[in-house]
Amino acid sequence: MKITKVTPWLLLATAAYNFGRQGEYIFVEVQTDEGITGWGEVTTTHPVANRAVCAVLQQLDPLVVGENPFHIEKIWNKIFRRFTYMGSRGASTNAISGIDIALWDIRGKAMNQPIYELLGGPIRENIALYTHPDPNIGPDEAKRQAKEIAESGHEGMKFDPYPHMKEEDNGYLNGGMTTRGEAEANEITAAIREGAGPDMELMIDAHGRFDVPTTVRLARSVAPSNIHWWEEPVPVESPQALRNVRDQIDIPISVGERLHTRWEFTTILENDLADFLEPDVTWTGGISELKKISTMAEAYYLPIAPHDASGPINVLAGAHVMMTVPNFYKLETARHRLVAYDNFIQTPLDVRKGRLHLPDAPGLGIEMNMDFMRANSDEQFRGE
Ligand SMILES: [Mg+2]
């Protein structure tokens, strides 16, 4: 079998699923000469960055066309090494991730096996999820949604209660938070605790927005609501800043969605900088890389909780790996109602009592809804 084409699909923001990061989604199609097609996904960020990733994907044919899609390690390294001069993180590992996931989908379909059967086999029957209330809601609605999430069977939920600061409009991180913003966030968090009940694991995402004294102040001030983890306390660039925070707060720390490949996780592991790791399978290097990072973390007895701010393939790719990983905590779904994800696939994701039950069909276990994809995607990238 040989790869014949790599195609990015940029799904434009529409009311039908205005839901993902900036409302857009990127899927990656890898075709072969034997009629088997694999699918991957890249979690989207800003519309400009999304188009840059699609442009990289569109230029990868010379590196992958003609290769055997079963030779996943070879193809992964071949692409990765071509990008090391421009920086082997970010757009290049996003593109690699999308292709890697699609290659595992092809391998599963060709061997008539779900991907988790090819990664060592399942060690659990289903995947525990944690989820989110809607963003930018007040305390009353937050309390109502927290109760709804608890009643749906989820045992963990995450949110970012801190208001946007004006300085952030230009991308500048002033690193601070007003005392008024802090008070509002504490009120929302207390309302969520009240709605969700004492047993819910509440996680707060600081989104790498704060400087060291601010993140320490905010973490201490929200601690009475019993917080399970404090995510991305500081911007990703400084391990020393993370060290400083870790030495000053008692809430467990989670990082990883902005870390790309196994090499960027070594700093965290070797320096004891986090309690949970949250790699994003569509950014960090795909299914192959998530499995490797999970095994590295296992050696340090750290749990893995794959990040999701995207669509159905992100969730499924992470779930297939986590079916085989002993040190699994919970897998993220960016919203507690997944109907938007189901637009893209022919059979809805099977979520019951806060748990994802994987399809037993081969590969990722899904078929894309091509009519929906064609009707809502940007023609300049898919080249049809
Ligand atoms: Mg996050």
TrEMBL record:
Gene3D superfamilies: Enolase-like C-terminal domain (3.20.20.120), Enolase-like, N-terminal domain (3.30.390.10). SMART domains: MR_MLE. GO terms for molecular function: lyase activity. This is Mandelate racemase/muconate lactonizing enzyme family protein. It comes from Candidatus Lucifugimonas marina. GO terms for biological process: amino acid catabolic process. The lineage of its organism: Bacteria, Bacillati, Chloroflexota, Dehalococcoidia, SAR202 cluster. The keyword Lyase applies. It comes from the Bacteria.
